[in-house]
Amino acid sequence: MSIAPVSKSEVELFIELEPTVEKEVNRHVATAEEWFPHQYVPYSEGRTYSGVVDGEDWEPGDSKVAPESREALLVNLLTEDNLPGYHYALRSVFGQEGAYGYWTNRWTAEEDRHGIVIRDYLTVTRAIDPVALERARMKHLQVGYAMPHGKDLLRGATYVAFQELATRVSHRNTGKASGEPLCERMMARVAKDENLHMIFYRNFIGAAFQADPSQTLRAVADVVTTFEMPGNTIDGFLRKSVAIANAGIYDLRLHHDEVVMPILRKWGVFDLSGLDAEAEQARERLAAFLENLDQAATRFEDRRAERQARKAARQS
C-alpha cells in the first residue's frame, strides 16, 4: 500500500523553488528584447485638445480604429493602469528579496511600458474620448486590487500564468480587430511581453508540480474554476466583456482553447500519477469544469453566429 507524500509547507516550497525563479529570471533577461514606447506613437498626427490650452474637442469620428476594438482598448488600458495594485499583490506573494524580488521589480518595469504606450497612442490618435478615459481610470483605481487568492504562493503564481496568457490573447486580437496597422503592431509588441511573462509563471508552476504535485494540482484546480480577469472591477465590465466577446477578441472559446488548455497540457495535469485523494478529487472537479466551459463556449458561438446571420439578412 503506497502512502501519498505529505504536502510541503509554503515556506519549504518557497525555498525549494527559488533556484527555478533565478533560472527563469536569467532566461527571461536573455530572451526579452528592449523596446521603446515612443516609437509606436505617431506624434505628428496629434492635435491639441480643448481645455487649458485652446484646442479641439474630441469627436467619435477622429479615430481610425475600428469601433469593435475601441472597447477592448479601453478595457486593456484600464487593466494595465492598475499596475500599482498588481505590484503590491505580487510582492505580497513573492517578497522583495533575492531572485523573487528581482523578478517582481523587473516584471513591474516591463508592464509599466504597456500602459505608457497604449495611453500615448490612444491620446495622440484620438482613438478614445480622453475625458471619459480619465474618469474611468480614476473610478477603476479607486476600487483597488486584491489578488484573488490572497498571499498564497501556488495559487497566486498559477493565477498570473493564466492571466498573462489571457492578456496576451486579448491584446493581440485587439490589435488585429483595430483595422489600423500601427495599432496592430503596438498591441503585438505588448502581447510579446505578456507571452514571455506567462512563460516565467508557467515554468515556475511546472517546477512546483515536480516539488509537490498534489498540492500544486489543488491550487491549479482552484484557480481555473474561479478565474476572472483582473479588469473585472472596471465600471460596466460585463457589458464591455460581452461586446469584446461578440467581436471575437476574447470569448469563452478562446479562453478554453488558447489559454486554459495549452497551459494544462504543458503541465501534464491529466497525466499525473501518485496524487493524494484530495488532489484526485480536485482533478475530477477540474475536468468537469472544463467540459462545462467547452459546452458554454459552443453555445455562445452558436448564438453569435445566429445573431450575425440575422444582422446580415436585415442588411441584404
UniProtKB/TrEMBL annotation:
<keyword id="KW-0479">Metal-binding</keyword>
<comment type="subunit">
    <text>Homodimer.</text>
</comment>
<dbReference type="Pfam" id="PF03405">
    <property type="entry name" value="FA_desaturase_2"/>
</dbReference>
<dbReference type="InterPro" id="IPR005067">
    <property type="entry name" value="Fatty_acid_desaturase-2"/>
</dbReference>
<keyword id="KW-0408">Iron</keyword>
<keyword id="KW-0275">Fatty acid biosynthesis</keyword>
<keyword id="KW-0444">Lipid biosynthesis</keyword>
<dbReference type="InterPro" id="IPR009078">
    <property type="entry name" value="Ferritin-like_SF"/>
</dbReference>
<keyword id="KW-0443">Lipid metabolism</keyword>
<keyword id="KW-0175">Coiled coil</keyword>
<dbReference type="InterPro" id="IPR012348">
    <property type="entry name" value="RNR-like"/>
</dbReference>
<keyword id="KW-0276">Fatty acid metabolism</keyword>
<feature type="coiled-coil region">
    <location>
        <begin position="272"/>
        <end position="310"/>
    </location>
</feature>
<keyword id="KW-0560">Oxidoreductase</keyword>
<protein>
    <submittedName>
        <fullName>Acyl-ACP desaturase</fullName>
    </submittedName>
</protein>
<comment type="similarity">
    <text>Belongs to the fatty acid desaturase type 2 family.</text>
</comment>
